[in-house]
Amino acid sequence: MADLAPTVDRPGVHVAKPARDFPATGSYACCCGASDRATGDDNVRDLVAEWIDHRNTCPTADQPPGHRPHPRPAGAPPPLRPLEGGPRLDRDHAAARA
Length: 98
Prior knowledge:
Distance between the termini: 47 Å
Strand order of the largest sheet: 1-2-3
Largest sheet: 3 strands, antiparallel
Shape: globular
Strand content: 15-25%
Oligomer: single chain
Structural class: alpha+beta
């Protein structure tokens, strides 16, 4: 398998969690040279938030495509978010069949 760790030449974020019982690991690198690593689910969650903040405010002028988020088109619907307490397909379909 190829090395998925981000570098200055290949900026981005990489998160891995091989199994439920293992801690997550993550790293990010930006073309401006900023980088960081974290281990542990909460630490990796914070690392991803840090990467998003950095990506959105990076002062590097010559950023590669995909470095900054694309603006949403005018009139586009808001992004989908999971509903808390929303329908669960397995539960609701079983109740409908009964």
